[in-house]
Write a structure and sequence with these properties.
Strands 1-2-3 form a three-stranded antiparallel β-sheet, with no helix packed on it. Strands 4-5 form a two-stranded antiparallel sheet. The radius of gyration is 29 Å and the shape is rod-shaped. Helix 3 crosses helix 4 and helix 6 crosses helix 7. 40% of the residues lie in helices and 15% in strands. By secondary structure, it is an alpha+beta fold. The protein is built from nine helices and five strands, in the order βββαααααααββαα.
Length: 192
Amino acid sequence: MITLFKLPAEGTTKLHVRFKGGKIQPLTTMNPKSSAQQIKTKPSIVELVDKLLDDYIYPEIAEILNEQGHRPGGTARRGCHDARFTPLKIAYLIHEYKLQSRYDRLRQRGMLTRQEAAAHLKISEQTVARWAKYGLIARHAYNGHYSLYEMPEGDLPRNQYSRWNQLEDRAAARRQTKTEPKTSTGEERGVV
């Protein structure tokens, strides 16, 4: 005779097997997972996606997860053992687990749309895009097609209309002045 005690909170079932001679043998087994539990994405992967959203867009997150050997929850199904993450699966996880979108994260960090950046800098939207292309202002993609722009804190670029002062040259000079140490007086340089 067998007596079963199912303990759903623990995810186990205890069995008491009574043999003809009167001996009782206790056994414990794990409850089988439901089909929904079998295909559910692991919480550790959802946490990793949440962290990656700070710096990457959906295709990049899918590529990172695949390179690290993670697999989506549906791999428990027959014929799906080699399933991989896709940008669509990442979007589904973000929606399903109510994670904050990359767009909202960037807006909270103070990023502006192209129109807002153009109004802030008093230039055209095309100039904002060109300045971002050459590194005068930072651009952060929030999906495969659109970006938000980070405004420099102090040293704002100026719009100049000169064929002698090309944008590429201005961007190179700007990068060089940021990397060179500044000296202000002759005494600091050793000149008396």
